[in-house]
Amino acid sequence: MESAQKKDVPVVTVLDPKFKYEVAREPGGENIKYCFQCGTCTSGCKVAEFDSKYNPRKIIRMVILGMRERVLSGDFIWLCATCYTCHERCPQDVRIPEVMNALKNIAVREGYIHPAFRAQAELIAGYGRLYEVDELANEKRTDWGLTEIPQGCPEVAEIYGITGLADLLSGGAGGKL
Amino acid sequence: MPSMLQDTGFDARIGVYVCHCGLNIAGVVDVEAVRESARFLEGVVVVRDNRYTCSEVGQKGIADDIKEFMLNRVVIASCSPRLHEKTFRTLLEKSGLNPHLLEMANIREHCSWVHYDNHEAATEKAKGLVHSSVARARLLQPLSRTKGRVVPEVMVVGGGVAGISASLYLGGMGIKTYLVEREPSIGGHMAMLDKTFPTLDCSLCILSPKMVEVAECENIKVLSYSEIEKVEGQVGDFRVQVRRKPRYVNEEKCVGCGDCVAKCPVKVKDDFNRNMGTRKAIYIPFPQAIPPAYVIDDQNCRYLTQGKCKICQAVCERGAIEYDQTSYVETIEVGAIIVATGFQPYDPRGLPQYGYGRFPNVITSLDFERLICADGPTYGKLKRPGDSQVPKRVAFIQCVGSRSVASGCRGYGLDAETGSSVGATDPKAYCSRVCCMITAKQAFMVKEKYPDAEVYVYYIDMRTAGKGFEEFYQRGRHEGIVFLRGKPGEIEERDDGCLRIISEDLDSGCILDLCFDMVVLAQGLTPPDGLVEFAQKMNLSRSEDGFLMEGHPKLRPAETAIDGIYLAGCVQFPKDIPDSVAQAGAAAAAAAVTCSKESIEIDPLGPVIDEALCIGCKLCEMLCPYGAIKVELTDKGPKAKSIEVACKGCGVCGASCSTRAITMKHYTDSQLTAQAKAILEVV
Amino acid sequence: MKMAVFLGCTVPVRNLSYELSAKRVAGELGLELVDIPEFGCCGYPVKSVHHETAYLLAARNLALAEERGLDICTLCSACTSVLTEVSRELTANEALLDATCKSLGMLGRRYSGKVKVKHFVRVLYEDIGLEAVEKAVKRPLDMFSIASHYGCHYLKPSEIYDRFDHPEVPQSLDRLVAATGARAVDYRTKKDCCGGAILGVDEETALSMARAKLDDISNAGADAINLICPFCSVMYGANQRKIGAGRDVKYDLPILYYPQILGLAMGISHEELGLMQNPIRPRALLAKIS
Fold first, then answer.
1. Count of the separate structural domains present in chain C
2. ipTM of this complex prediction, to 2 decimal places
3. Which of residues 77-106 of A touch B (CB under 8 A)?
C-alpha cells in the first residue's frame, strides 16, 4: 500500500477508497464513516495507555484513508480488549470495539488470523468450549456435589461447518501473521 | 376579463406548464415526455415547458395563453407550492382568473430531487403527478377570500436580549408591545454573563441600558413573572391568555430600598448565581433587574409556607408587601406574536464521566460567568467551589452536550445515593455555535485576571466564524492559552480535590496525563424547558434538533409556518448575541408589516356543512384542535357551525364526519378522488 | 424463580467455587438454577474471528433454554454480553431470526426469540432485590473491606443491559457488598478493564493493566477483591503471583466471588462456599471472621 520510507516518514501514495465501504458493510462496522477524529476513544483506552501500538483513533483513520493491507495485516487490530469504554463515550456512535471485530473478521477471511485466536477457535471446535471437560474434571465436580458435564459438544463443530469457519481455519488462515 | 371564463358551467380549459427549473428538474426528469403525456388529457388546451416558469418570461407566457386560449384552469408542474403558489396565484388574479383555479404538481422535491438516481422512475412519477393535477384542476371551484381584522399590537414572549431588542424595535415604531417574561426580571441569560465575546464588553453594562429603555418606553408593557397559558385566533387577531404569577410585592409601590431583604430571616440557594451563593426568600435577582421590584419566593417564604413571620411587611415603609396576591389569567389581544424564549444550557450530569455535580471543582460555562462576575457569589474572584482556592491550572472541555449523538450511556446519569436517574439529558447532534468563543473568552479572562495561571482548552475543532472571532482566538494563543486537539474521555477527582484528565493530544501524538485545579465544561445550548408544550399551545413545529422551526431555512429565518408568529434568538437555534439581536430586528419588521395592514385576507379553506346530513353528533367539535367548529341548536335540531376566523383548514372535521356532511373547500371529496384515480391510472 | 444457569467454559472446570457458591446462595434466596448439560461455548471467543459463527453458537444456547421454557442466568460476564446481544438482536431483527432459524434447523433445533439473559449478580440486584439480600444476612461482614471489580461486559455495552447500572458511575456491586455489612472500598481505577481479553496477544500489556488495578486496590486498603467473572479471575487470581514476582511485590490479595461474600454473610460455612479452593487462599480474611 505505502511506498518507501523517507527518513522514517511513512509516505503513503496509494489508498484504497473502497475499504471504508467494505468495513461499513461488515456487521459492527456500519457507523465507521461517522468518525470525526475527536480522540475520545484513545483518551479513555486502557490498552493505549500501556501500549503505543494500539490507538483506536488511528486505526479508524487508516481505515477511512484506505490503508487496507496495513490495517488487516497489522497485529494491532487484535489488541482491542473489547472493554467498551470507548463505545460508551464515542460521540458519533462509531461502535469502535465492533469496528475492530469487523476488521478482524475481514482479516481472517484474508488469511490473517492471530495465532492466539486461531488456537481458541480450534479448541472450541474440538471440545465445544474453551476447555476440555475430561473424566478427572467430572470426578472433581461429582465430589463437590455438582452435576457432570458431557465431554465434547459435536453441534459446535457442526456450526463451524454450516458457517464456513471450519473451511476458513483449514484453508491455512493465519499463515501470514 | 370576462368572468364567464371561470364559470364552472363552461367546460374546463386547462393550460399545463412543465418547468425545467434549469437542471433541477430537467437534469433528471424528461420534461418533454411529461409535457407530451399531458397534451391529450381531457380539458387540456395547451401544454408547454419552460426553463424557468417563475421568471418574467415564463409568467408572461402563461398570461398570454390565458387570453389567447381562454384558459380557465392552470396547472404548473414545478417546485413545492410553498415556494411559488403565491406567485402564480397572483398571476392568475392579474389575468382575471380566480386564484384558486391554480393547481401545482411538485415534480422537483417529489421527483427529481428524491429520485435523482433513477431518471426513468422520476419521469413516470412526474407524469402521474401532472395527470392527477389535471384531474383535480377540472373540478376546481372559484373561491372568495374573507377579511379578518388586525389588532395593531404585538406580544413578545421571552425577555432575553432577543425579546428586549424586538420589543424596542416595535416600541420605537409606535407599536404597542407586551413583553412577557417568566422570570421576575427581564434580561435572560445575557444578564448572567460577565463579559461578551470578542469585544469583552461588560455584559450588563450594554444590556442594562436596553432594559431601562424597555421600562421607560411608553409603548412597551412588561409582564414579568408571567407565562403563556393559551393562544387562540389567527394572524392579525390572536387572543393570548397570560398567567400572571404573584410577586407578593406591589410593583408600583416597591422602590427597591432593600429594607425587606436585610430583615428576611430565610436564606436559600441563589439560582441566579447558579446555586453557588445564597439569597433571601424576598429578593431581587440582580441589582439592575427590570422591573426593579422585589419578589417573594413562595416555596421558601416562612409566612407563605408556615403562616408566621411577616417581618418584611412590618419593615416595608411603602406598604408594598401583599401576601394575599394570587395568580390570575389576563387575556390580551394582539395581531402578531414574536417567540423569543431562548435556550437552556445543557445539563452535564447526563455525561457523568465528567463528574459535574459530583466533583465540586468541575463547573459549567455559565457557572464560570457567575464566579468571575463582580456581582457573583465570590465578587469576581475566581474561587473554585471545592475549597475557595484560586486555581492555578484551569482546563476547559469543549462540546459537552454538543456534536454527539445520544447512544451508549450518554444522556443519563445516576444518583450516587439512590441509584435513581438524574439529569437525563441527551447530548445533541448539532454544534451549539457559541461555545468555542465562550471558552476562548473565558480562557482569556482567566489569563487577564491571573497571568500566571495555566490555561488549557481541550477541543475537537475550534469554530471561530464571526466578525473578530478568529482574531480573538489568535490573541488567546498569543496570551499563552494552550489549545489541545483531543477530547478527554473522563475526569477523575484526586483526594486533594484536583482533577486528573488523561487524553490523547492528537497534534503531538502523546497521551497527556494532567492535573487541574478546576475544569470548566463548555455546555451546549439546548431547547428551553417546556418548549414541547409551548409549541403545542402555539401549534408551532419543531425541527429535528428540538428548536422551533423557521418558515424557510434560508428565506424566512425569523418567521414560522403560522402567519403572524415570528421567531427571534436561540429558540430557533443557538446563536450569539449579535445574531439574536439581528433576528429580533427581522422578526420585529415582519410583525410590523402584519400590524400595518388594515385587514388580513383569510384563505377560504374551511368546511362547508350540509345541514341536511349533519346529525349533530359533535365528533367534529371534539376533534377540532382550534375550537373552530361548534354544534348549535337550530330549529332543525343540533347542527355543526363553522367559526371561520378560528378555522385553519386542517380538514380533521371533514375527514371524521360520519355522515359525510362536511366538505372541505378547495379539497372536496370529488377533487381528491379524481386526483387519486388519475395517479393510479398512470401507475 | 427458576432459570437455566449458563456456566460457560471456564467456571465448571477452573472456578468450581464460583459455581458452587452461586448455586448454594441462589437456593437460599429462592432462585432455582437448572443445569442444561448440552450448553456449549457462548460464542464470545469467536466473535472477533467469525461473527456469524459467534451468533449461531449463542443462538444455539438460547434455543436450548427456550426448549425448557427458561431464561438464562450467567456467571461469566463475557457469556452475558454475547448471549444478551444475540437474544436482543434476534428479538428485534426478524430477518436475522429467520436466517438463524434456518441454520439452527440443520442441527434440528429452533428458536423463536423468547429467552432473556441476565448475569447472576444482576438477578440478585434487580429480581431478588437489595432488600431481600440484606434480610438474608445473618453475620454482617463489618470486619471486611472489599473492593469490587466490575469488569467490562457486566455493564457494557450499556444499551443491551437496559441501563440497569451506569458504566461511568457503577454502583450495583458496591451496594451488594454494602448489603453484606462489609465496607465497599472505593478506588481510582474501579471501572478499568482487567486486560484478560488480550492476554494471548500481548501478555506484557495485559498484565500491566491488571497490575495497575492490583496496586490501586492494595493501596486503597482492601482485604479482598470482589469478582463476578471467571475471565477477570484469571488475571487477578491465577496471574497475581506472576504480576507481583516481576517487581518483587507480594500482593496476597484474595479474590472472592460475590456469592461467596454473600454466602459468608448469610452464615454459610466457608467450606460449603469453596473459599479455600480460590486461586488466592483467603486465610487472613477467614481468620477475621472467627
1. 2
2. 0.94
3. 85-93
